[in-house]
Write a structure and sequence with these properties.
alpha+beta; 3-stranded antiparallel β-sheet; about 220 residues; 11 strands; 4 helices
Length: about 220
């Protein structure tokens, strides 16, 4: 129903949009820049109505395009959208981010900004992203209970933190580094299943990360 991507330049995102005609892209407020790599949200149009969308940079000047702070190697951002479930009054917030791969301080400060954004929302939230950090890190601690509003869907299912959970593979299919891609959910969601998708075509992979898939259900109450 929803998809979060990272490192998408405009031409790449245009390709995805053209080839996923059943999905809408949440980028109404975006300042498009041909050289920028955007975390981007897609949603199944038959299931959701886009109510509002926005994004901000994970920096000390979040409204300034391509701004960065805390020795971040690249400008980093979060994109978010409020979606209404069709034929229902239910609404959810959906967000996707990509934290810095070099500066630990930038990851930590970015996580604090995301947590501050999340605790102000009035609806269930799903947070998707490449966090460039592993469970047990300060970034993970900031975002997840008891310090943050989220629960890690992989951990909710009691899955092992071993190489089968690793998501980075550098286009080789051989997992490295750790489980740095997460789907986090607030308490309004029940986690039904999670998996790391290792599909390829003759050894060719669509990304240098394995996609992370979670099956979740919005609770009735």
């Amino acid at each position: 129903h929803v998809l979060g991507t990272q490192e998408g330049k405009p031409s790449m995102l245009e390709f995805v949009t053209e080839n996923l005609p059943d999905y809408g892209i949440s980028a109404d407020s975006r300042h498009w820049d041909d050289y920028c790599q955007y975390p981007t949200l897609y949603y199944l149009k038959d299931h959701f109505i886009l109510m509002e969308s926005s994004e901000f940079w994970l920096s000390q000047t979040p409204s300034v395009h391509l701004s960065k702070s805390w020795e971040s190697a690249f400008p980093r951002m979060i994109s978010h959208a409020l979606l209404k479930v069709r034929q229902s009054e239910k609404q959810i917030w959906l967000a996707v981010t990509h934290l810095d791969h070099i500066s630990e301080r930038a990851r930590i400060e970015g996580a604090k900004m995301i947590r501050a954004w999340a605790v102000q929302r009035q609806a269930p939230i799903l947070l998707l992203g490449d966090f460039n950090d592993v469970p047990g890190s300060e970034v993970h601690r900031i975002l997840n209970k008891p310090f943050g509003p989220f629960s890690d869907s992989w951990q909710v299912m009691g899955k092992a933190e071993d190489k089968q959970s690793y998501t980075q593979h550098g286009f080789t299919g051989v997992p490295t580094k750790g489980r740095i891609d997460w789907i986090l959910a607030t308490a309004e969601f029940t986690v039904l299943d999670v998996s790391v998708v290792r599909d390829h075509k003759a050894g060719r992979y669509p990304s240098d990360h394995f996609p992370f898939l979670a099956d979740l259900e919005l609770k009735e109450n």
